[in-house]
Amino acid sequence: YIDMADRNPSIVVVGAGVAGLAAAKKLEEYGFNDVTVLEASEKFGGRVATAALGDVCVDTGAQYIHGASEKNPVYCLLKKSGHLNQIPEMGKETFYSNKGHKVDANFARCAYEAGEEIIRYRGSNTGRSLGEHYAEKTQSVIDSLQDDDEKPRMQSVFALVGKDMLIDVGASDLHRISLDSWQYYINMGDSLNVAGYDGSMFQLVDMLLEDFPKDRLLLKREVSKIKWDGSFSVYPVCVICENGEEILADHVIVTISLGCLKAQASSLFIPSLPTEKMEVIDKLCFGNIAKIFLEYEEAFWENDVGSISLIYEDDTPASVSTNKMQWLKNVQSFSVLRPKERLMLDQMTVKCSPKSILCTKWRSNKFIKGSYAFLPVGVDGQVMDTLAQPLVGSRHPDQDLQILFAGEATMKTLYGTVQGALLSGHREADRLAAHYKKTVAPTSTTSLDKQV
């Protein structure tokens, strides 16, 4: 029997998104030197991704720092490295109706803030849907208005707030989202959009890759089977890749998306995952967001415009859901990347064709299968703790962490965020460090993990 503190365990991390890379980097900092990262696709980063469009690099995946404050480790890392210095002011918000008329910005902003206050309600054990709550509360605001002309205008802005929430959550219908979704959530402050600038989110991936041994980062290694609770030579776990390669390990940290777990969990693990874990994977929802990038030869908007929101005059809060036949109605806002000096017409009737178009396809990406997790009605966020529970073998259950789980969907306090992914990776690295009685404090990352 070898004392745990003297062991040099073999650790495999499945998935090189933010959770996987954060776990691997922190394990290295703890002094573990047999850490291998397996990534199924051709590039690192997972749902933090970029693509070239013209001469600009755009964020096709995560673009928001949810909480631009010192509480947020993602913000701290990017700020410390100087990557947030180049982000310019976002420019002013403008609002247009679907008839092409400019909507009074003051009215739209005030109505939007009123709607946002209602929709951001943090329910606790209500068992209700966000859609039901939002339709009910906005209706009572509309009923209280004296001016009948203002009612439909207010209603259409409230609908825009609902559509924006569908994007935040990744859902197709407000009635699918639990009103109790943010019961355990940690609010780290206002969001910062880093899309399309040199300080893009991908800088975080580069920072996590820094100093990690390149020969331990293996791309195009799709994992087809994880055999655990076995005896493979002296190791309890055997990871089998699609190409037939087998990697033996003491511990495997699984960081694949909830979408992939939904598709593969029943066939990926031998023996199967415990029933309670499979039930959680089944219960949780994995949303989908698509981004469309349009590149124009010349800008047709005013130089100081940062975003254009579209308000559909016949929309109501109760009608907010996505519809495949009317998907265009759910393209409700445009963000300007690198605005050029041109005038936008007051009536948006100018015929202008984009020079190039780029559309993301996260749902059909076989190694991701969507955007991020959300809680459906009737599901308590505590189920994410069940998903995060490590699996121990039957031989030495008291000293045995064979399969560990990380990723945003394992964080009831921060799911759907980049810092949720990052901190979940740190959590599992800390778990293994404690297991091996490692006490060396990590250097370059953050002590904020303890708050979660």
UniProtKB/TrEMBL annotation:
Domain annotation Amine oxidase: ranges: 18-432
One GO MF term attached to the UniProt entry: primary methylamine oxidase activity
Main enzyme class: oxidoreductase
EC number from the UniProt entry: 1.4.3.-
Spans traversing the lipid bilayer: none
Single biological process term from Gene Ontology: spermine catabolic process
InterPro entries, per database record: Amino_oxidase, FAD/NAD-bd_sf, Flavin_amine_oxidase, Flavin_monoamine_oxidase
Superkingdom of the source species: Eukaryota
Pfam families: Amino_oxidase
Positions contributing to FAD binding: E39, A40, V223
Keyword line: FAD, Flavoprotein, Oxidoreductase
Cofactor(s) this protein requires: FAD
Family under the similarity heading: Belongs to the flavin monoamine oxidase family.
PANTHER family: AMINE OXIDASE, FLAVIN MONOAMINE OXIDASE
Listed name of the protein: Amine oxidase
Organism annotation: Sinocyclocheilus rhinocerous
Gene: LOC107707587
